Amino acid sequence: MRRRTRLFALMALSAGMLQGCQTLDKVNILAAIDGPFVPRSERGANVQEQSLAAAAASEEETIIAAPAPEEEATDVATAFADFRAPARTESTPAPPPVTAPRPEPATRELPALAASVLEMAPARRPASQPALTLPSPLTGFRSFYEFTLASLAKPGDRESMLLADPPSLNPALKSCERLPPAVLIDLDPAGGLIPLTSSSAPDPEFATSLATLRRRGATIYWISGHLPDAEPQLRELLKESGMDPGGIDPLIATGLGAERKQERRHALGESHCLIAILGDNRGDFDELFDYLRDPALAEPLEVHIGQGWFIAPPPLD
């Protein structure tokens, strides 16, 4: 078969050379005819494969060339945009830091019982007000004298009229054991000092009662807020009134602001048994009464009024 094909080609070439200008076209035809020999049985298969390949290439070009729908692309972009965090711009200020509020300081509570019962007063306070109705000098002095005389007659240990624990408002008293008996008389009026030039008339009955108590063994103590340098004037007043004609009674001059009467009372309670106290207000028995917020809280202490604590006008007033 190949020999026959070549022979036809030579014949065609010869004819082309004879015909002149038609040579070029025939050569092209022969060039197209000349090529690798393919059997007839394989030609159909090759043609079918080439057709399938051409169809596949055409379909691929169609898919590649087809543009995506604009609406679908837009929806996808929008969907992804929803999941993006908004970018912070310079014009958007950052939120200010949160500052926790500063706790207020708690108020510290005083543990002492006196803080809840007593007023936190300055060191210098006026004495408590006198009783609304003071007993007459004769009544007050007589009660004082009779109680003291009865206490001196009792055998055994005596009880002091000083509170054992004043801030507790407990009426319990200190024990005297075997201390010598004494009484305490406050010379000053409530909220002031006794005048150093008194014009009061002597009280013979009270002077006689005091003399009796001295003979029975009681020591008479006098107390005033005057300075110690006022002692001579005070003693002269006691002599002139007949309260201490011999000038033998102990006199306590505390001095305002220098020493409290409370301190002197308790110091006296260390050496003597105070079986009775005479004054014109409850603060003369214990300074607790001068600091009470509510006087009704001291109700338990009222048992001592007339039973060791006696209220009467100042003896030299």
Automatic annotation (TrEMBL):
<feature type="signal peptide">
    <location>
        <begin position="1"/>
        <end position="20"/>
    </location>
</feature>
<keyword id="KW-0732">Signal</keyword>
<feature type="region of interest" description="Disordered">
    <location>
        <begin position="86"/>
        <end position="105"/>
    </location>
</feature>
<feature type="compositionally biased region" description="Pro residues">
    <location>
        <begin position="93"/>
        <end position="104"/>
    </location>
</feature>
<dbReference type="InterPro" id="IPR036412">
    <property type="entry name" value="HAD-like_sf"/>
</dbReference>
<protein>
    <submittedName>
        <fullName>Uncharacterized protein</fullName>
    </submittedName>
</protein>
<dbReference type="InterPro" id="IPR023214">
    <property type="entry name" value="HAD_sf"/>
</dbReference>
